[in-house]
Amino acid sequence: MIANLQLAAEGAQNPLLPPGPELLVGTIAFAIVFFFLAKKLLPNINKVLEERREAIEGGMEKAEAAQVEAQSVLEQYRAQLAEARHEAARLRQEATEQGAAIIAEMRAEGQRQREEIVAAGHAQIEADRKAAASALRQDVGKLATDLAGKLVGESLEDHARQSRVIDRFLDELEEKAEAAR
Amino acid sequence: MSAEQTTLAFDWSCRIMADNGCGFPAPGLHSFLFQPIFTVGGYGFNKVMLLALITTLVVVGFFYAAFGKAKVVPGKLQMIGEAGYDFVRRGIVYETIGKREGEKYVPLMVSIFFFVWIMNIWSVIPLAQFPVASIIAYPMVLALVVYVIWVSLTFKRHGFVGGWKNITGYDPSLGPIKWLVSFIEFFSNLFVRPFTHAVRLFANMFAGHLMLVMFTVASWYLLNSWLIPAAGVSFVMTMGMIGFELFVQAVQAYVFVLLACSYIQGALAEHH
């Protein structure tokens, strides 16, 4: 047995020198592996990997599209909201302006009416005063003449002079009143 | 080589202090020789060849099961296959050659990686227990494929003169030593490189197998008398070596493919 092993060791080739049949078997064995993997199985898996990548990217594209849509809707909504706010502000502004205009108009109208009323009042008062004054002048003239006639004992009624005297007297009275005012 | 020379039957009676006049059956070169299972035209078909063919079956079978009816939503097996495929494609090919130029070489590199890995893994599979890559012929075939590809690629990409410049690393800025550098580069790239490419894988597997056989045989050999604890130590070492070999097998497959990619990348690059 030992001899056998010894023989085997001595008979062993240099392990760096390849035996021919092994080279052939190795070549065939590897060629078969390479053939199946390169021609069939790896293209197979590459196709599937590509499909998977597309499926994932398709899903991502879909999600992206949805997001874009949501974004656009949001922007639209925001624009509408801003527009509505703007509109409301504009209406409020307009209302304020209109209100101010109405108030101003009313105020002007009131002023005008007041002035009219005041003017009418003044005119009325003036007219009344004049009527009163002229009535008074007549009455006062008559009364004074009557009084003077009674005092003097003679009728002065027919005398033009007398009336002149009364008028002058009344004018003096008026002047005094003017001066006193 | 006669049948007698390749007889490797393990002598079960060989034990330490057994007094039957037999020493430690140390593993050696004979551990890498096998009696032919059958012969075809004077050439023997041995266990290693069988393992190489089973490797082919396993790799093609696995990828057929994983990718044969590939689905967009993967099953468990397809997921594992994709992980392995992606590891080589992204982790090695894209990293070294780049995505655009490298895509073409992905099938080759995936084939090499899994072929080498499974060839190596037989080292620790019960009954097989032999790394196919520890027979130089198998790494050599693969290294030769890579060699032919990168050399032809160099000339195809850079033309005749440019190809030689690429291989020799010709650089006028080096001055008078440019010829020396070119000679060394020429020798290193064209002759040493394919040799080391194959031998790196071969030697790792060869040494690994020797270690495994060594501790396995020692575990049995020491299993006698008061040396039984030593046998236990040897057995623990065997288990440790199996774990370590599993690691080395994968690393060597990775390194082999990584180097193949870097050679192709060098052939495609403008300058070394």
UniProtKB/TrEMBL annotation, chain A:
Lineage top rank: taxon: Bacteria
Protein name: ATP synthase subunit b
Location(s), subcellular: Cell membrane
InterPro entries the record matches: ATP_synth_B-like_membr_sf (IPR028987), ATP_synth_b/b'su_bac/chlpt (IPR002146), ATP_synth_F0_bsu_bac (IPR005864), ATP_synthase_B_chain (IPR050059)
Self-association state and partner proteins as the record states: F-type ATPases have 2 components, F(1) - the catalytic core - and F(0) - the membrane proton channel. F(1) has five subunits: alpha(3), beta(3), gamma(1), delta(1), epsilon(1). F(0) has three main subunits: a(1), b(2) and c(10-14). The alpha and beta chains form an alternating ring which encloses part of the gamma chain. F(1) is attached to F(0) by a central stalk formed by the gamma and epsilon chains, while a peripheral stalk is formed by the delta and b chains.
Keywords: ATP synthesis, Cell membrane, CF(0), Coiled coil, Hydrogen ion transport, Ion transport, Membrane, Transmembrane, Transmembrane helix, Transport
Pfam families, A to Z: ATP-synt_B
Topology relative to the membrane: Single-pass membrane protein
Organism: Streptomyces wuyuanensis
Automatic annotation (TrEMBL), chain B:
Membrane topology: Multi-pass membrane protein
One GO molecular-function entry: proton-transporting ATP synthase activity, rotational mechanism
Subcellular location per the Swiss-Prot or TrEMBL entry: Cell membrane; Membrane
InterPro entries membership: ATP_synth_F0_asu (IPR000568), ATP_synth_F0_asu_AS (IPR023011), ATP_synth_F0_asu_bact/mt (IPR045083), F0_ATP_A_sf (IPR035908)
Main subcellular localisation: membrane
PROSITE patterns: ATPASE_A
Parts forming coiled coils: none
A Gene Ontology cellular-component term: plasma membrane
Residue stretches spanning the membrane: 48-67, 105-125, 131-155, 201-220
Keyword Transmembrane helix: yes
Highest taxon above the source species: Bacteria
Family, as annotated: Belongs to the ATPase A chain family.
Reported function: Key component of the proton channel; it plays a direct role in the translocation of protons across the membrane.
Descriptive protein name: ATP synthase subunit a
Primary gene name: atpB
